[in-house]
Amino acid sequence: MNSVQDWPEPIIRVQSLSESGLPIIPERYIKPAPDRPSFIDPEDSDANIPIIDLTGLSGDEACNLPATTLDQISSACREWGFFQVVNHGVSPLLMDQARETWRSFFHLPMEIKQAYANSPKTYEGYGSRLGIEKGAILDWSDYYYLHYLPLTLKDYNKWPASPDSCREVIDEYGKEVAKLCGRIMKVLSMNLGFREDCLQNAFGGENFGACLRVNFYPKCPQPDLALGLSSHSDPGGLTVLLPDHEVPGLQVRKDGKWITVKPAKHAFIVNIGDQIQVLSNANYKSVEHRVIVNSAMERVSLAFFYNPKSDIPIKPVEELVSADKPALYSPMTFDEYRLFIRLRGPKGKSQVESLKSPR
């Protein structure tokens, strides 16, 4: 698979469309009827993903958590693929500062933002589409994507220089969230019956990867016809999302229903990515999710992706493979899988399912 150098069509910034005051959205953003939020698809309005208190996880030992908390996390990983965490050890002040710093970036003049425009080659920078299919139906969102780890990919020049202290805030936020991810990885390993470092070692130990995608969902005049982000499962290992707690938008698919997540204040939303589904031989599931938009308020969220070292073949952990439960997936590096995803764009759960070993 070869890398693609440029987008197939001129890029239109969704924020510019929104701010132009247009009463109807361009046809390019209208989803097929079955994919629209307005499509008759039962939603349980009272349901929410589990909220789990991580008090005791602030140190380096995951075993400090009560057994009941470990059980809650295990159940969430197997049944939902998603959960919220509170008392997670990251400063609420830093969380708010990170979100509002990025909100300020998206409200800078267009010529400043355009200096950071991205391409399909690395995706790093200011973007407005995923996938390179010409004529594809697009999502109602802009974003900023940047590499955090490994250090060989970390380039401050590709991070916004405005607003003031933006780079310092991003750096500090990434440091703290990466620590939280490392602690959660220990819990996931223990709940599979392994040593704390099993999954982390499969990721490359200290040589793991991390990146940040900041999502900006402008107001949409026809939110019943569009999506901020199409249905997909996350291609990486573990995702920690800082939501906009004042504007719900994330929906998780559970038992055929779309559940709109109700974010708790200063909670993170954690979800399993495709790489951990593969490593766990599908004991843990990456789950389909999407983002809806609304006509009254914009929304900003920060998705921190904690990933394997890019050139290590990822396959089911040997201890989880048996005659009764053979390996469901053939080995593939994260680099190979990420390019596979980028060329195709969001496609529900079909990406990881297409990788299952033939029987």
UniProtKB/TrEMBL annotation:
Keywords: Dioxygenase, Iron, Jasmonic acid signaling pathway, Metal-binding, Oxidoreductase, Plant defense. Residues 207-308 form the Fe2OG dioxygenase domain. Its cofactor is L-ascorbate; Fe(2+). GO terms for biological process: defense response; negative regulation of defense response to insect; regulation of defense response to fungus; regulation of jasmonic acid mediated signaling pathway. Gene3D superfamilies: B-lactam Antibiotic, Isopenicillin N Synthase, Chain (2.60.120.330). It comes from the Eukaryota. It catalyses: jasmonate + 2-oxoglutarate + O2 = (1R,2R)-12-hydroxyjasmonate + succinate + CO2. Coiled coil: none annotated. One of its GO terms (molecular function) is jasmonic acid hydrolase. Belongs to the iron/ascorbate-dependent oxidoreductase family. This is Probable 2-oxoglutarate-dependent dioxygenase At5g05600. The gene is LOC110425129.
